[in-house]
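sorry to bug you again but im stuck and you know this stuff better than me. what follows is a protein written twice so to speak, once as letters and once as structure tokens for the fold. id like you to explain what the token line says about the fold, in plain words if possible. anything you notice is useful, everything is just below.
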Amino acid sequence: MKNVDESRSPALSKQSAQVQPLHALVDLAIFLSVMFLVREIKFDSLGFWGYSLFKSITTVGVATLLLYFRKQSWKDLGLLKPGSYKKMLVVAVIILLGTVVSIMIFEMFLRDILFTGTDSASKSNSFSELEGNIPYFFSIIFFVWIESSLEELQDRGFSLNRFESLFTKVPLSTILAVLMQAAIFGFRHSYDFSPRSITTGLIGLVFGAVYVLTGRNLWPLIIAHIVLNTMSMVERI
């Protein structure tokens, strides 16, 4: 995976996102500390999605400052105009299909082995207000889309590339980076070893793998994430 598709289109190489391993370590220490510490700041008045946006905006803001300090921008990590909109949509569909297949495999073959007796019907109370409440759905969906976009910036854009720079002298550095960002993505959505953390981690794994294999453009991931979260919200109505 490390040397796949070096001639990317549009012109974006792995090297454009690289920093020195020591710089990557410092950046990750700051970035991850903010990512997890900001979760301890509670603003009940903001509601679930307002609070989620606060956390993501803060974390992405810190990442933006770190990029500026390293003389980089989000374009270096893949936030740039796709070379082909058709390819962008095809990649987004591949991500969605890969996500569905990976979760189906987990649910069919691994869930009962890893989580015997776990209630598969349990759902987060964070979405209880959505049930039967279509006006509420339309009042929050724009915030859901923003949150989806910010998560791709921080998890695939910043986190994956910084882990890759950190492991640059280690064999299979890109694979390690994909696995690390997926594990963090799953953990911070659940904070325990649970079906939710595994399924979310699988989503991060598929998104990260497709990101590095298809040219490191963030837009297909953002589109797929928006579609995935929108479908999840519709399912809860």
